Amino acid sequence: MEGECCSSTEKRKQRQHHQEKPYRGIRMRKWGKWVAEIREPNKRSRIWLGSYSSPVAAARAYDTAVFYLRGPSARLNFPEYIVEEDGLHDMSAASIRKKATEVGARVDALESAGSSESNPTRLSVKPDLNEYPNPENSDDE
Known about the structure:
alpha+beta; GCC-box Binding Domain
């Protein structure tokens, strides 16, 4: 049967695989955390990019690393979010890891803050630390 791409079981496996790995360069741990890592060019070693609570944060960390490793021609998950700096220069694995984890952590924080805003009961439990205490509610009266 030439011309046929895949059997129904292969299509089901592809769909399941897509749900498990929604973005390039990431995977989900058994306990639900998303992790990102990337292989160094021309080496067998990998650069660990961190563990995140959302797949988007892990994918953004991967994008940062792959951009610094492979340049503007890299295949990215979110090409619209890459900011080209003064110029790409050779960076060590440690420098790439640092930049990628900074981006991933920032996105993770924004993602988790966005989820708490959509849940008003959870938001009300946390006090606003920038707000001065109300003298009516103070205990020193």
